[in-house]
Amino acid sequence: MSWLDKLVETYDLNVGTGGLIPPFHTEFNAQVVVTLNEAGDFVDARMISEKKDRATIIPCTEESAARTSGRVAHPLFDSLMYVAGDLADERLLARLPEKDRSKRLRVFRECFELYIRQLQAWCASAYADGYVQTVLTYLSQRRLCEDLIKKSILPVDENGALFAEKPKEAANPAEAELRARTAPIFSAVTGDLSKTVVLFEIERRNLPTVQLWKSPEVRTAWQNYALAEAGKNAPRGFCQTLGRESPLAELHPKRICNPGDNAKLISGNDTANFTYRGRFEKVLDASGISIEASQKAHSALRWLLAKQGCHEGSQYMVAWAVDPAPEVPDPLKDTADLLADDPFNAMPDEAPIMPDTAEAAAAALNKLIAGYAAKLNAKGLCFMVIDAATPGTLAVKIFRDLEGSRYLENIRHWHSSCAWKQEFSKEKRFYGAPAPRDIVRAAYGEMKLDDPRLKSTVSRLLPCILDGASIPRDIADCVIRRASHFEAVEPWEFRKNLAIACSIYRYNNQTRRQYTMSLDPTISSRDYLYGRLLAVADYLEYSALTANETSRPTNAVRLMARFAERPYSTWRNLSMALTPYKVRLTANRPGLMVKLESLLGEIHQLFTVADYENDRPLSGEYLLGYYCQKQDFFTKTKEASEDSENN
Questions:
Q1: SS3 at position 355
Q2: What does the alpha-carbon distance between residue 638 and residue 414 come to, in Å, rounded to a whole number?
Q3: How many CA atoms lie within 13 A of 294 on its CB side?
Q4: Which end of the chain, N or C, is surrounded by fewer C-beta atoms within 10 Å?
Q5: How many CA atoms lie less than 13 Å away from 630 in the CB half-sphere?
Q6: In Å, how far are 251, 334, 408, 419 from 363, measured between CA atoms?
Q7: Pairwise CA distance, residues 12 & 31, whole Å
Q8: Contact 167, 108 (CB under 8 A)
């Protein structure tokens, strides 16, 4: 099924859920609330002070929901240029230049006439609502701006002229006072004051006030009226989503990702260029989508993105279960964040923030996936990625319609097969898979959220998580190459990149060999053994350093990038550079020196002569050998310290 089918199905199964925008409604940012009594008289007005409270669901028409320019009115709540009949007053616009003023007067008159005729038509229909009629009674008096000025919401000068824009920096006390008076409205409204959006509420005697933008009766009345009107004028045809004859949508909603978003997923209004010309005669030949299906699908997508979506710059992603169910595991999170959001208590209460062994992490992950599987049903899971191809157009980059069990198994497979001991910081250490954005930064370094490389590379990594595909070779090579350059990053970032590189190599080569996160002395491959040699050289030199010298990197770490390109020739130079440290270690810690010499001999014996003398570049496997050998050193050192303390 297509993404439209799944979104319509999601809407039908979740209708009535809080936050799900009804058909023929849209989300809008409002700034002012006007209170009326039941007779249609002005009572009060106030600004919406909190920014989080300004996002409001308001009725809209098919045309007004899709408006990007031109004059199309929303049916009940809109900006002052539509709802205020007295805004077209020369006295109010006296501060504007003459040429601009005459144009604004004409536009404001036209906008108010469009709005008031549309509101009158609704009130005259069989779907009229009494409270909407109250609003019509008040607005027909054309005194909204006058009332808002009296309440000091709209700022005017001493001559009663409206400030179209915020006054410039204060040069004297009078101007400072003026700026203070005008600050609230200008901080809330983007652009000039004609863009101020007004909501209405009805004050009732001995009863609670009715906020019309939240009234279920008003919403239902408008939906019935809008659907009836749309059916009269829209062309009829076969809806490929609903599977029946229906009024077809010629315009589709915007504001999908956020209330200020003007981009659309479906658009066919470009009759002059090549949106569809050359392939179809008419826009509806390309795809028949009914008004009902379009409204439901866009409402469901808005709701899902706001509820559980995430984004990288302009790229938005969301995973969801089609019918009511707990939120599904987010494929963009690393294992630590996935377990931290666990709704099924996969980790016991007495456990630390993260499991402290690979086995405990695997058990917690399996328990988490089992918890999701027990709650999900046969309707399936979907994953969708959309991105703004242009400022006015959204593209569906990825859509997956998966069975719930398959999706969860792919998530489990990623977090177990790509698992390694990650060291992101002192506070965040865990066994598991890194997040896609961390892989991107390990490959290309730190970047801004709107960097196109970030979102494009995250999109390329998603099939690895959703479908079990291999990590693209160019990304894996960049991560491995960058993990070899200690000098290019801070020590903490080097450790982070090293662990991510081990994760990626382990994941991409899981069919060839089952690598463990601990040292495997049975592996005799050339690259793994050279990695072990590098770790021994690093540990030997570090152990011989004095307390004042430990802050500098060892020769092994400094030559790491060169070692990865030419291991045999670099190892000969590194061996000679180790001579003074061997002498120092023999004098100070002869027992450790004997053990390290013995270990070097054991590793050399595992080589074949041809492999040892081969100077071709190393694969990422050498990083696994290096990491595991170093981890083995520090594990044994810790165990020895604990034994000494116990004795």
A1: coil
A2: 31
A3: 28
A4: C
A5: 22
A6: 51, 16, 15, 13
A7: 32
A8: no
Strands (E), 297-354: 310-312, 315-321
Residue burial 304-333, b: 16+ Cβ < 10 Å; e: rest: bbbeebebbebbbbbbbbbeebeebbbbbb
Contact 437, 453 (CB under 8 A): no
pLDDT surpassing 90 at residue 601:
yes
Decide if 472 contacts 460 (C-beta within 8 A). Answer: yes
| Beta pairing, strands 32-37 & 25-29 | unpaired
CA dihedral 481, 484, 489, 495 (to 10 degrees): 110
Q: Tell me which long-range contacts 202-205 makes (C-beta under 8 A, separation of at least 24).
A: 202/35, 202/36, 202/37, 202/38, 202/131, 202/134, 203/35, 203/36, 203/37, 203/38, 203/43, 204/38, 205/38
Query: 406: burial class by Cβ within 10 Å (0-12, 13-18, 19+)?
Result: middle
Q: How far is CA 139 from the centre of its chain?
A: 41
| Euclidean distance between CA atoms 591 and 91, whole angstroms | 96
Residue 308 backbone dihedrals phi, psi, to 5 degrees? -145, 15
Place of tokens 């069919």: 511
Interval 331-360 mean pLDDT: 74
> What residues have CB less than 8 Å from 194, skipping those under 6 apart?
79, 80, 81, 87, 104, 108, 164
pTM listed for this prediction: 0.74
Greatest mean pLDDT range, 319-328, 330-339, 495-504: 495-504
DSSP 39-99: TS-EEEEEE---GGG-EEEEE--HHHHT-SSS----SS-EEHHHH-GGGS-TTTTTTS-HH
> Residues in the chain, how many?
647
CB 501 within 8 A of CB 478: no
pLDDT of amino acid 100: 82
Distances (CA, A) of 369 to 347, 363, 468: 12, 10, 16
Instruction: Count how many Cα atoms sit within 13 Å of the Cα of residue 319 in the half-sphere of its side chain.
Output: 20
Tokens read off for 338:
């996935």
Q: Report whether 291 contacts 66 (CB < 8 A).
A: no
Q: Tell me what the pLDDT averaged over the chain comes to.
A: 85
Q: Would you state the structure tokens that stand for residue 472, as one six-digit string?
A: 């693209």
User: Cα angle at 65 between 64 and 69, to 5 degrees?
Assistant: 60
638, two tokens: 């810790």
Name every residue whose Cβ is closer than 8 Å to that of residue 456 and which is 6 or more positions away in sequence: none
Q: CB neighbours of 635 closer than 8 A, spacing ≥ 6?
A: none
CB count in 10 Å sphere of residue 268: 19
264 strand-pairing partners: 393
| pLDDT tens digit sequence for 421-462 | 998 887 888 999 999 999 999 999 888 777 888 888 998 999
